[in-house]
Task: inverse folding
């Protein structure tokens, strides 16, 4: 798999790289087509967030999926980077926000305290229209800001703090909350929180997985929770998969849990509000 280019130099192609690149190009074409076709093929899954004190349903995180005509269901780890590079993240992000808020409105009729969490990337945050768009989508759906949490990840350039704080404070005036996703996996963790007006941190799954066997992780998570509480930050523990992990976390008292132990992310028609609420209570007695 070597070939001569125009200047008689050897260029190597690794077949796996080539195939991966080809698959990416195909997927990008499918994503572009789907956006043009009124976002056909995109859907949202919802994963419950559970209050640790009472095991009541607090809300859900919206997670995007793409159904590829050739390959079936594709996960965001694969297609979100393509959306980011191609500029499609902006329209798809708007679709996610719109769809998640419309769904939230329906669930709040049964459970008025229900909150929806929506992931937002920096490509979206850098878009000048985003501040007004979020507020107008809430209005369209007759929702107060307190129905929405926006999840962002750590690790932005220092010069962007001012810009982000301006957006965040406009949102916070309306009751929208800001959450730092995958907390602990980036750098500058705690310094970051002081510079930005954050309401919640989501401790990454990698610290939760097998926590009952790791004195180090248990201490780490315990310290994060202590520091967060002293700054009036809510803590959500992500990726709780087992009863043993839950038992270890119970001693630390975060505010929220999210993970396969409670439920996988499910399509909205499988998100049965009443039975979920009942089940969590029974599960945790
Ligand atoms: P995230 O925001 O940290 O979402 C949590 C991820 O962990 C989800 O993966 C979820 O399915 C998975 N998860 C939840 N509980 C468990 C558990 O107990 N065990 C395990 N092994 N996994 C668990 P998913 O849906 O594949 O999403 C991956 C990432 O893609 C998200 O991470 C988020 O960063 C990004 N993403 C998803 N939807 C959107 C979106 O609408 N917009 C943007 N910008 N990014 C999104
Ligand atoms: Mg998230
Ligand atoms: Mg996360
Ligand atoms: Mg993430």
Result:
């Amino acid at each position: 798999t070597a070939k001569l280019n125009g200047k008689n130099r050897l260029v190597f192609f690794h077949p796996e790289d080539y195939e991966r690149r080809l698959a990416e190009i195909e997927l990008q074409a499918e994503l572009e087509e789907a956006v043009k076709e009124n976002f056909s093929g995109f859907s949202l899954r919802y994963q419950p967030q559970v209050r640790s004190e009472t095991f009541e349903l607090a809300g859900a995180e919206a997670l995007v999926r793409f159904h590829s005509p050739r390959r079936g269901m594709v996960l965001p780890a694969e297609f979100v980077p393509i959306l980011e590079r191609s500029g499609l993240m902006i329209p798809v992000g708007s679709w996610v926000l719109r769809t998640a808020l419309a769904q939230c409105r329906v669930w709040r009729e049964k459970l008025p305290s229900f909150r929806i969490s929506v992931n937002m990337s920096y490509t979206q945050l850098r878009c000048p229209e985003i501040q007004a768009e979020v507020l107008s989508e809430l209005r369209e759906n007759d929702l107060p800001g307190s129905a929405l949490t926006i999840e962002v990840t750590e690790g932005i350039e220092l010069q962007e703090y001012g810009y982000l704080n301006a957006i965040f404070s406009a949102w916070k005036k309306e009751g929208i909350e800001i959450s730092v996703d995958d907390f602990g996996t980036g750098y500058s963790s705690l310094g970051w929180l002081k510079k930005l007006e954050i309401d919640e941190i989501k401790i990454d799954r990698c610290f939760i997985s097998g926590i009952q066997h790791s004195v180090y992780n248990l201490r780490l998570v315990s310290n994060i929770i202590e520091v967060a509480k002293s700054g009036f930050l809510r803590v959500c523990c992500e990726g709780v998969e087992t009863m043993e992990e839950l038992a270890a976390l119970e001693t630390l008292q975060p505010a929220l849990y999210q993970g396969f132990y409670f439920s996988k992310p499910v399509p909205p028609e499988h998100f049965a509000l009443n039975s979920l609420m009942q089940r969590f209570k029974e599960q945790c007695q």
About this structure: The longest helix spans residues 15-36.
